[in-house]
TrEMBL record:
InterPro entries: CheY-like_superfamily, Sig_transdc_resp-reg_receiver. SUPFAM superfamilies: CheY-like (SSF52172). The modification 4-aspartylphosphate is found at D65. This is Response regulatory domain-containing protein. Residues 10-129 form the Response regulatory domain. The keyword Phosphoprotein applies. It comes from Kitasatospora aburaviensis. The keyword Transcription regulation does not apply. Keywords: Phosphoprotein.
């Protein structure tokens, strides 16, 4: 998939915990896969900050901490899917593998168990970002 050299993708990372946000940024790095553009990040520590960022547009992926307090990423993810037209893909960080049913309830597009596995997170994010880029790129005939 070709992209412009100056193109970037924006990833919103939500958690009340600065360390969790840093783990996500470190795991994804500047580019989670060679075939994707570089990433820009929007770090959000509160539910209102996420909503404000999404209202502005331009977000290509949301990574939400399911264990965030006071507003968990699972409930927030469901709200985003219900209320945001053209909601970007949502990847949730769940507390344990048994919580995948909660991720499904939240309408998340993908879920990764904590602690964050950098390889699993990068692979899931890359898959969601490729699909996002493919949707907005016109087909060339």
């Amino acid at each position: 998939m070709a992209y412009k050299s100056d193109e970037t993708l924006t990833v919103l990372v939500y958690s009340h915990d600065r360390n969790t946000r840093e783990q996500v940024l470190t795991a994804l790095g500047r580019r989670p896969a060679e075939d994707l553009p570089e990433l820009d990040y929007l770090e959000c520590a509160t539910h209102p900050a996420v909503l404000k960022a999404l209202e502005k547009g331009g977000v290509d992926l949301c990574v939400l901490d399911g264990e965030a307090v006071p507003a968990g990423g699972l409930g927030l993810g469901r709200q985003l899917k219900d209320e945001i037209y053209g909601c970007p893909p949502v990847l949730v960080l769940i507390g344990r593998p048994q919580d995948t049913w909660l991720a499904a309830w939240s309408r998340a597009d993908a879920a990764i168990s904590r602690p964050v596995d950098p390889v699993a997170l990068a692979e899931a994010a890359a898959t969601l970002l490729r699909a996002r880029v493919a949707k907005r790129t016109p087909a060339v005939h």
